[in-house]
Amino acid sequence: MTRSASGGTAKPDAGRPAGNGRPGRRPGGPDTRGEILRAARESFADKGFAATSIRAIAREAGVDAALVHHYFDSKDSLFIEAMALPIDPRQVAAGILDGPRDELGRRIVTIFLGVWESDEGQQRMKAMLRSVVTSDEVARLMREGITKMILEPVSQVLGVPDAKLRVTLIATQLIGLALVRYVVELEPVASTDVATLVDRITPAIEQYLS
To answer: InterPro entries in the record, alphabetically (predicted)?
Structure first.
């Protein structure tokens, strides 16, 4: 305790942090994990997997890198959780398969574009797309997951020997569309309304299916 100028006893400074914590760095708290995920999502979207570091994510989230490692044991683990698709791939497959066979192509295009059209979905999908081409491990994980949860179920309903080839060729069409519209932003595809895109792309997809 110290004596105040008026002769009273001054209380310790209640606003002063205890210990020797570094100023400007937030300790773990209720929303710290969410802030780390937000920072990681933005970094992966802007830079891709290879150019993103744990330290950079920590700086953006306002925490120490050690705290990021406390919540996530590796950059791969952080990527997998931060880049969680806005729609469960199993639900995507179920939506594609739920309906008449002669409308399968239209459902594929509609659902694919639907995933990309929301702000959050687009951010996550762009991050995934960029990271897949810069990391063999991420590409392998995504390839195996998408094949098992989407490509195989759709292939099975076609009932033809080259079904997997056909579905994979459809994927090349859709990935190309996503690159042009959402990453390169090439006009007029980038600003064309979704309904028009579905009408224009569906016949091409139907060719692979039939």
So the answer is: Homeodomain-like_sf, HTH-type_TetR-like_transc_reg, HTH_TetR, Tet_transcr_reg_TetR-rel_C_sf, TetR_C_16
